[in-house]
Design goal:
The protein is mainly alpha-helical. The chain has two domains: 75 residues, Orthogonal Bundle (Arc Repressor Mutant, subunit A), CATH 1.10.10.10; 31 residues. 74% of the residues lie in helices and 8% in strands. The chain is built from six helices and two strands; from the N terminus they run H-H-H-H-E-E-H-H. Strands 1-2 form a two-stranded antiparallel sheet. Helix 1 packs antiparallel against helix 2, helix 2 crosses helix 3 and helix 3 crosses helix 4. The termini are far apart. 14% of the residues are buried.
Length: 146
Amino acid sequence: MVAVDDLKSILKKAKFSEKEIEVYSSLLKLGSSIASDIAKTAKINRSTTYVILGTLMERDLIKVSERRGAKMYVANSPENLVRYFENQEKEYGEFAGAIKKMLPELKKQYASVAPETDTPKVKIEQKIKRLLREVSELEKVLKNKK
């Protein structure tokens, strides 16, 4: 079960929801199953399980087939999970590349509206306010000791 625990940890870091992780893990454990059995194993209500199964199908991590009128869900090969993350990396890598190209313009825009919280004047004012609060608190403590 170490591999399943490690997988859960990775999926959590990859921003899969707890319920997505439980449904996917349940499918790995159960094999081909109906939604109610998956829901029971994952300890999630059945209607939520259907929504999550749909999300996992969109990611090509599971598939559905019909057997005797019942929908049967099964996890796809673990290679699909690897492929999913490789595609995510490519997709987000493209976003990063596009944003890098825009960086000079974005920096100009940011600079024109950026808050001036890091200026020396603001820092000094913040320190003075903090010191005045501390002095006031000390005065209260000293008065209470008398």
